[in-house]
Write a structure and sequence with these properties.
Elements (H helix, E strand, L loop, with lengths): L1 H14 L4 E4 L2 E4 L1 E14 L4 E12 L4 E16 L2 E13 L5 E17 L2 E14 L11 E12 L9 E9 L6 E14 L5 E11 L7 E14 L5
Parallel strand pairs: 3-13
Antiparallel strand pairs: 1-2, 3-4, 4-5, 5-6, 6-7, 7-8, 8-9, 9-10, 10-11, 11-12, 12-13
Length: 236
């Protein structure tokens, strides 16, 4: 698996040249490299229902500084082979502009449609998410941040190859009263490797670009995750 890590790191080195510029006395970062890493546990209750717990850490400023620490609890319902529904709950310890961590809570609702065409597997996801800072009222400057996210992806099944590539694109629609509009787009190339009874390793390289701003930022993200899956043997 070291080969996968080196390949993604090489992509980041090729594409990223960290830069910033100053205007009106302020410094704006136009590019950055981040590292997103997770470890998780998934439990399949039966063929239609599963839930998982995941712990993550995200580094920014050329992957040198802790930016966020995340704890995710997720539930997935699969009523048909083509349609899934999901619910996610997230606690976020987030570094603010003054380097002081605040605590946020986020939840999301997902609808996912999947289908296959020959060697390709296509997936489309619509997500609604809501996030706010814990312990801070609206009068104190906090307000709910609402988003709709639209994601489309394709996986190519390569015969006798364990690292099938997955390519996806996602756009973010901010529904917040004060800052509404399309404000972010992501492009991701990833893969996964099954360790059979010992779980699965995921890796990805992502480019994220901000929209609708005078000072757009491009973020290059290297991601690595491990998930161990348990199954209810009574429902096999």
């Amino acid at each position: 698996m070291q080969l996968i890590q080196k390949a993604f790191l090489l992509c980041a080195i090729i594409f990223i040249i960290p830069s910033s510029f100053s205007q009106d006395g302020f410094t704006y970062v136009s590019q950055d490299l981040e590292s997103w890493n997770t470890i998780g546990l998934k439990y399949k209750v039966n063929k239609k229902f599963s839930f998982g717990l995941e712990q993550g850490i995200r580094l920014n400023q050329n992957a040198s500084t802790v930016d966020q620490v995340l704890t995710d609890l997720s539930f997935k319902l699969k009523p048909t082979p083509y349609l899934n529904f999901g619910l996610g709950l997230r606690y976020v310890s987030d570094r603010g502009g003054n380097d002081v961590f605040d605590n946020d809570f986020r939840f999301n609702l997902d609808a996912i449609f999947k289908h296959k065409v020959k060697s390709f597997s296509f997936k489309y996801r619509v997500r609604y998410q809501n996030r706010n800072e814990i312990g801070l009222s609206t009068a104190e400057g906090d307000y709910f941040k609402n988003y709709f996210r639209f994601k489309a992806g394709a996986e190519f099944n390569i015969n006798k190859w364990k690292l099938d590539p997955v390519l996806s694109a996602e756009i973010f629609r901010d529904m917040t009263k004060y800052t509404g509009g399309f404000d972010k787009v992501r492009f991701t190339l990833g893969t996964s490797y099954s360790l059979k009874k010992f779980g699965e390793i995921d890796a990805f390289y992502r480019i994220e670009k901000s929209l609708g701003t005078n000072y757009p930022k491009t973020t290059y993200i290297i991601g690595l995750g491990y998930t161990f899956t348990l199954k209810n043997k009574n429902n096999d």
